[in-house]
Every structure is written in C-alpha cells, then in structure tokens.
Design goal:
Elements: H1 4-19, H2 30-34, H3 41-55, H4 59-89, H5 95-150
Helix pairs in contact: 1-5, 3-5, 4-5
Length: 157
C-alpha cells in the first residue's frame, strides 16, 4: 500500500524530471501508466480522474464521522437529560440523583466531540495532501502535453 507522502514524492520527482527535459522517467507515476506512446489530453484526463478518486478515497467517511458524531453525542445527552427530568418528576429531585445523571449526559457529548475533532483534523490533513498530489499530477500532464505538441516523437513519462 502506497502512502500519500510517498505518492507525492514520486509524482514530484517525475515532474522535476519532466521539467528538466527528460522524456522518460524511472519514477513510477500515475501518468506513466496512461501516457505511454502518444499523449492525448483525453487520455491524460482519464488518468487524472482515476488518480483523484484514489487520492480522495476515505475522505467522505472521515467527513461523515466528523460531522455526525457530535450529533450522536448530543442525542445521548438529550436522552440522559430526559431520564433525569423523569426522575425529578417522580419526586426523587435530590442532588444525589440529578448530578450523576447530568454527568452521564455530558459524557455522551464529550464522546461525540472526542471522536469529531480527530476525524475532522485527519480529514483536513488528508484533503490537503490529496490536493498537493493532484496539483503535481495536473502540472505533469500539462508538461507532457506541451512536450508532445513540441515534438512529434513518442513521449513516455
């Protein structure tokens, strides 16, 4: 399994090679699979779309977890507070009954926030890394197309 950092390093090295005038890079890249032979904008766009899907996989789930976990925690809090009010209505309104129930209610909220903060943080970090990868891949595609227009030779990434 390739990590986003190693993928970014690989794509950056390939872009550097292309910018220095290399026609073939030894670095494995996403575009190397697609741009062998004659490069076309359509062919490169398909590869770019596949790379974007791959680089952003899992981000939707992190976003869902980050955005819904506080609400799940809030739901637990509401249920616990409703139970507390039921106990208060039954006549057991002492602090020894209310305090533990309110404390339990706040644990649910805390748990939701405890899950949401790391999920949202990792979502943003991975989203940024994906953006960086896609930026390098798009620049590489532009260089490949520019080089293939300037040359009628075969062009391999």
């Amino acid at each position: 399994m390739i990590t986003l950092n190693s993928w970014l390093n690989s794509e950056s090295k390939a872009l550097d090679s292309l910018l220095l005038g290399a026609k073939v890079t030894n670095t494995p890249t996403v575009l190397k699979k697609c741009a062998t032979g004659f490069a076309s904008k359509e062919k490169l766009n398909v590869c770019i779309a596949m790379a974007e899907k791959s680089s952003t996989s899992g981000l939707t789930w992190l976003s869902i977890i980050a955005s819904t976990s506080p609400f799940i925690g809030l739901f637990g809090t509401v249920v616990a507070i409703l139970e507390t009010f039921a106990k208060m209505g039954a006549g057991d309104a002492g602090l020894s009954v209310i305090a533990p129930a309110i404390s339990e209610a706040l644990v649910a909220t805390g748990a939701g926030i405890f899950v949401a903060i790391p999920a949202y943080t990792f979502h943003l970090l991975l989203k940024r890394k994906s953006y960086e990868i896609m930026s390098v891949i798009n620049r590489s595609a532009d260089v490949i197309l520019l080089n293939s227009r300037n040359s009628s030779e075969r062009f391999d990434v």
